[in-house]
Amino acid sequence: MIRVLGIETSCDETAASVVALEGTSAPEILSPKILSNVVLSQIAEHAAFGGVVPEIAARAHVEALDGIIEAALADSNTSLDEIDAIAATAGPGLVGGLIVGLMTAKAIAGAAGKPLLAINHLEGHALTARLTDGLSFPYLLLLVSGGHTQIVRVAGVGDYQRWATTIDDALGEAFDKTAKMLGLPYPGGPNVEKAAAKGDPARFAFPRPMKGSAQPDFSFSGLKTAVRQAAQAIAPLTEQDVADICASFQAAVADALADRVSRALMRFKVEFPQEEQPALVVAGGVAANRMIKTTLEELCDETGFRFVAPPLKLCTDNAAMIAWAGIERLNAGFEEENAFDFVPRSRWPLDVVSAPVIGSGRRGAKA
Ligand code: KG4
Ligand code: ZN
């Protein structure tokens, strides 16, 4: 049995978790267990600023992390002695938070004489579906969060190829900015979705960015501009105007997403013709959106893909995915890397081979 303590502090969640795996066989045969999963969200501390403030985030991590780690150990009925390794997010993300998490992990691992693993937060998202659904490689991942919008081909532990990314804003960021423009509270995504439920998705003909382009990349800043122009043209906005704009925005997003993702599904089929039931995994906070989820589900039905959406608690930022990535790396024999020398990286692409896309990842804060 391997038991790993995971620590996540890359953005505005302070999280710790203990995950266990019996033996070292493939997870599709022996199911892993999440023994504890403690997540403290800082949303309330950032809400007044309409977004995550890095200094506030770092300070909040410092204050909360020790208690969160203690709670994760206590919830799992595991003592530090029984932990086999410590896995901490080392990037990408806000560097202040990363320093807090990685330094704490180094201190605990050093004092307790345990191995330390420096984990890429995106790898945590990429491997979650193996923890929750026992998925086998290869599969396709759509990561849609506040900081990232990517399609990644996941073919093994450490074997990732980014097939698409956003050339400007992340999708969650587009939801948050739209909400802000319309005077809806932070975080924007859930509030835009709520308003959209009462709106007319056909009232505004917003653009479907990148639709039809052969490369499945994303772009959302033009859509954001179109929303601003539409709102300015009819200001002051009534509640119904806001609802109609939100519904029309969401319809444009779902439509653009379906077009972009379908390109990647086609490519996957060409590259992996032997896969009988290929899978599309969705991760990130935007995966909470019902309309987006339904659109992707329908797309998968039409194209013969299995749609895998891990429980939302494990789709958004958490430390169970970091502990799990640690277990996967140990099983794959990656433990030789000396994480005690590892310096946190605010930018750390999962696929180092893919060329950076101009304009993408400007914010680099959330993953
Ligand atoms: O994965 P996540 O919890 O945090 C990181 O970005 O790391 O994602 C948060 C993002 C925010 O931009 C939020 O507005 C968006 O996910 N989001 C949603 C919904 N719930 C959260 N976007 C659209 N619809 C939702 N229901
Ligand atoms: Zn994330």
Automatic annotation (TrEMBL):
It catalyses: L-threonylcarbamoyladenylate + adenosine(37) in tRNA = N(6)-L-threonylcarbamoyladenosine(37) in tRNA + AMP + H(+). Substrate binds at L143, V144, S145, G146, G147, D176, G189, E193, N289. Its EC number is 2.3.1.234. Residues 33-324 form the Gcp-like domain. Its cofactor is Fe(2+). It is an enzyme of class 2 (transferase). CDD domains: ASKHA_NBD_TsaD_bac (cd24133). Keywords: Acyltransferase, Cytoplasm, Iron, Metal-binding, Transferase, tRNA processing. It is found in: Cytoplasm. InterPro entries: ATPase_NBD (IPR043129), Gcp-like_dom (IPR000905), KAE1/TsaD (IPR017861), TsaD (IPR022450). Fe cation binds at H121, H125, D317. Binds 1 Fe(2+) ion per subunit. GO terms for molecular function: tRNA N(6)-L-threonylcarbamoyladenine synthase activity. The keyword Ribonucleoprotein does not apply. The keyword Glycosyltransferase does not apply. Required for the formation of a threonylcarbamoyl group on adenosine at position 37 (t(6)A37) in tRNAs that read codons beginning with adenine. Is involved in the transfer of the threonylcarbamoyl moiety of threonylcarbamoyl-AMP (TC-AMP) to the N6 group of A37, together with TsaE and TsaB. TsaD likely plays a direct catalytic role in this reaction. HAMAP family: TsaD. Belongs to the KAE1 / TsaD family. This is tRNA N6-adenosine threonylcarbamoyltransferase.
